[in-house]
Structure formats: structure tokens, C-alpha cells
Design brief:
- With about 325 residues, this protein is an all-alpha fold.
- The protein has a domain at about 15-210 and about 280-295.
- Helices cover about 55% and strands about 0% of the residues.
- It has 13 helices and two strands; from the N terminus they run H-H-H-H-H-H-H-H-H-H-H-E-E-H-H.
- Strands 1-2 form a two-stranded antiparallel sheet.
- The radius of gyration is 21 Å and the shape is globular.
Amino acid sequence: MSKRKLTYLSSLLALPVLYALFYGIHISPQGNAIEQWLPKWDRVLVLFAIVGLERLYKYRYAVSQRYILHRDIIANIVNLWITGAVVGVIVLPLLYFLPEHFLGRKFVIASPGELGPLWFQFATILLFISLFRYWMHRMQHTIPFLWELHSYHHRVTDLKASNGEVSNPVDYALRNVIVFLILGVVGFYPVAILLAVPVATFTSVFSHCGADLKGGVLNYIFVTPEVHRWHHTANVPEGRGYSVNYGVEFAFWDILFGTYYLPQENGQVIQPERIGHPEGLPDEKNYLKLLLVPLGLYPPFGWLQRLPRATAR
């Protein structure tokens, strides 16, 4: 077998093998024990694995992101360890309080068994997460204020392990936190959540892998790097509106709702030559601007300058 063919086959097998590997690690008893003293350890491990893949399988249109690595590190720390905790403190009380007092019933299901057997809850959780995130992501491209928040994620000039979490925290929370908080209060079996959530998490993280990995048949099930690059293309395909491939973990919602796009030529998947903001805006190196500008709070304390000043007598 030639080296070229071997490289192709290994790049085709890499995603399913890694999906299974990290899923197994996450749901193992040892994984739960590690999570107690190092939250999000699995996500960090995935990021390092993706970095290794990016070195091993060079992507021909790759663009260096080293000059903004400091921004990426800050964004990862904020969105992985801070955003979820802050949003949880704010949103969870509302998720418990509002339905109970305004809908006349408790939102939390008293018995997880009322929601069906374990396999049914597993499938329901996956479908709910993926459908919620699909439409939230789609709205983040079509509603002006949400796009203002989300557009910073689309300024990146290449998909890399380091920039998958580069996003305004409000934008990140709407797409990646709220849905999981809802799951936590509905009353699903904890085991069903434990089994289902990693499937959604790992596939979405690997979508930002900058390696030249082949999706094969997985391109029509999961959001692989080949599928997700077209969502980040600087030139939206003609007649496709705001963007394509809005799915965060699964591709079948895009297929169902007519937003799937993955061109091929001679049986080979074509990839966009340029990643970036569709209006040509440059990547934002300053994390403080990414954080505050969409909320009208930049420069910091700039609101003081807008306060009416007493006229001199």
C-alpha cells in the first residue's frame, strides 16, 4: 500500500476512532473521578489531540493563528471555566421559578421514569440538544443583535483547536450553555444525560479541527471539519442566504431543513480556499473588544463620558 493511500485511509479513520476513544474516556468511572478535581479536563485533552492532528495532517489552505494565540487562550479560559458557571447562577433560578409560578406547575419532573426508558431518554436528549443548537445557531446568523455577538467567531481566518471557543460569552452561552441547563432541570435520568451529552460535546469540538481529516459517510451524520469549513467560508455559496451548515454536532438537521452544503468533484469533497468574516472584517486580536464592543461597553467605563456634565457657572 502506497504512503499516500495509507495517509488517506488513516485520515478517514481518525474521526470515528477519536469520537469513540474520547467518549469512552469521558463516561468511564476514572473520567468522573478526574472531573472532580480538574473540571473540563476532557476538553483540554481533546484540544491537545487536535493540535497533534493538525501537525500530522497538514491542511493545504491552513493559515497561521499564532499571532493571536493569546486571545485564543483567554477565550478558552473564559468560556470553558467561567461563562457556564456565571450563566448557571443567573439562569437556573429562573428555570425553576418562572414555570412553577407562572405556568401553575413545577417544571422539574418528579420522577425521571416518567420520561420513558433509558434508551428513549438518551435519544431524546441528543435530538433536543442538536435541534435547539441548530435553530439557535441559525438565529445567530439572521437576527442582527445576535449576529453582532456571533460575528466575532466568524472572523477567525482558519479553523484551529485553539479558536473553537473564541466567541463573545453571551453568544457562547446562548449556543452552548442554556440548552444543558434546561436538561438539568427537566428531570432526565442522570445516566441518560451522562451518556448523551459527550456525544454532542466531542463531535462539536472536533468540528474546529484544522487537520486535513476526511469525513466520508460521517459528513452526512456529524458536523465534521469538512462540513464546518463551509459554514466558516469567507464567500457564502450563491443563493444560500446568510450561511450554510448551521448544525453544531449533527449534519442531518441541515439536510432536513435544506441548509446542508458540501460540494464534490470527481468523488472528492471540495473545501473553501478562504475562511473568514463574510463581509471581510479582520480577526479581532483584542479580547476586550470582542467581549465589550457588541454590548456597547467599549472602551471600558466609556459610559462615564456619555453622562451629562454640569455646565460651568
